[in-house]
Give the backbone structure.
Amino acid sequence: MMQNEELILVGGSGDTARSFDPLITELHIHLPHIRVVTFSFSGTVRQTDLPLHSQVSDLKQILTQSIQRNNNKVYIAATSQGAYSVAHILKDSTYAPHINKCIFIDPADYYIDENSKTSQARSWSGVMSYLPNKKTVSSLMKEINSNVIIDVIHFTLRNYGKDGYVSPSERGEDNPQKFPRLNSEMVKSFYLNTPEKNRGQYIENNSLPHAFMRDGDIPKNGKILSELIQQCILR
């Protein structure tokens, strides 16, 4: 049976296609009728720094291939820094009409004119105040002019402080003395900046660490996140 629904997973800084393996295993169980596509940004493959704007070009190539496969429905799930390229795509009239659903998984915001390399690009952590003084990526959501539905999932588990992450063994546990890895107002800005007609669900989850592919119980993380993605797609 031919699969004509496709879910494209877009990773964050340093993620590769293989990083998603535990999540993909669970997605095949929860959404067996959907083809799952992963990829590595070209800078990650070359192990060199890739300017953020170059990630947009990479994602366009993946979407072009998906469109050529004549999928009836295309979904995108982007985590962390992956939100940068996806937000640009959602306002692009060439690609946006082909996307039915977009799920931002703990998205990170950046200034539009960010010229740093990916390893140095600065977002807002949970210990920082979210007070941008110029245009950010999340503000691009206001320019959406298609029928795509946007869901945002925020991980509120607290494992980050002024000195960075807690010890590796504790990163999968919620610590009331710490903060979420990403600023909560920043994450929600992706949802609040979305036109009302395009808004789906805003979901907060306090059991998943931001680095769900690295920290805590990784197989369990994949199961929980796949259930959340299923909830968004089938709603």
